[in-house]
Amino acid sequence: MKQLGGYSVLFFLLGHAVDSSVTEECQALSLDILLKWLRSDANERHLFIARRGHWMLRHLLETERCRPSKSFASVLINLSCSAPVTLTSGGKNFASVLHSDALVVDPDLLSFTVQCWKLWQRFPDRSPSFDGDTLDLLLRTLQHLLRDNHPHRQFNVRQMERAKILPLLLHMATVSFIVNILLDYR
Q1: Is pLDDT larger for residue 149 or for residue 22?
Q2: What is the spatial distance between Cα 149 and Cα 30, in angstroms, rounded to a whole number?
């Protein structure tokens, strides 16, 4: 993979998948391949971070043709943990939190996932399901990783503190509250 160009080739393919307007699941699978490659190669990961890869990824997620969904959030959440924490069902945009004793192994990726909260709300799930929208999935996952009977709860708390997840959640809540007040005021 390095001989072909490393992470930049995979990032290009992700961009092509988004630009081609293929299904959300295909776009999420392309993201999954890119992030798994970065997870497997420390040098490529360092280059990705040094070249503002998270900024480029966020820019790609904000494009008009990209449909950030539960599949995207699930990929980001699962790759920030030592084991899968969420499960998505292709085509139905259904996602659930698995019972898992996973560790947060990439707090920066989890922080990035929380920072994308506006993207998760951009295309709300309008299906008549009880599993909530993408932001609900993210919040339920964080709650699950910090539950009382989690054997590695303290480790996960330290990882989330290091990534400053609580200030991000408080910012998200504040902005949402202010927006709701302004909408009610009109």
Answers
A1: 149
A2: 34
